[in-house]
Amino acid sequence: MVGLNFLATAALLAQGALASPAPVAKRGEGIHLLNCRPFGGAGVSQTWISIVVYCANDSDCSSLGYSPPANNVCVKGTSTSSEHYHTWEGSSQSCTFPTGVTFSWNIPSSAQSQPNYSSVGSGSNGYRSFAGFKDDHVNGLSYNYHSCEKIYYYI
Keywords assigned by UniProt (predicted)? Predict the structure, then answer.
């Protein structure tokens, strides 16, 4: 019986009746709001930073260890203490990338009390609008000797 199923499948493949799976589509643009802690060690900056990162392919921003090019990073705030990360919520905000493009958003002050992946409004880069979501605080990309935790993302 197994031999017959194999032969039937082989015949269908030869005739082109069974198509191979379609390639995985490239995800669209994404913008991530992250808090980053220093890796540590002698001679390494001990400054905590909050950054906005643009990814032409959003799945890159979700790749562990991905390090975005400097033109795709906007530093929103720095601190010498992790207790003083930038506050993303509660007011209209924006950040201008080195390319001159500005991304703007308005996250409700109650957004961190929502479940992960909940909608937290929208954002815009002047070219198009993005839907915003609370992220899961998982460590994500690295930037300039910092390990970053995802706070919000826009797709």
Answer: Signal
